[in-house]
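Appendix B. Chain record.
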Amino acid sequence: MAAVPSTQPNYYLTVGLPIFTLLLGYCGSLFTEWRRDKRLEARERKAREELRQQAIEDRRASFQRETLLMLSELLFDIINIGSKIAQVYKTTNAGITIDSELGNEFENTVAKISRYRVRVLDDELRALINKLQKHVFAQIFSKTANSEKDEYNNSLETFNKANERLGVLLRELY
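Structure tokens predicted for this chain:
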């Protein structure tokens, strides 16, 4: 006797399979949304980090710009004040007293230069500033008119090099 095929619908195919595929689709869409949210969260985190890094770089560049601009003015001041002090030495054959206005101005300028020099990131500029200060001090305390003139010329040459370097660094920051 052969088995007779049943004409009744199979419960698993008519009811179970649609419910199973519905649940499978629902779980799949939940998983897809979860992955999309994770990717979006990662992109947003990366964008926030990039903005934070950009803000830090902008503050650093602004700080460096302000430092370089102030140094430019101070280097000009030290040349002028050093020349004035050397002129006073030459004409009066006496030194500048520590309490004098010119002595105080020179001391304040040297202190400011030292304060700003350590903030500069460029080694070449720091070396030029040190060299300029040495020439100005040598000019002030030179014994002869020729050595005073030579040191003045050396300080001007070093000032020009430092000023050129300042210009290059400022252009890089803008």
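Further analysis of this model is presented in Appendix C.
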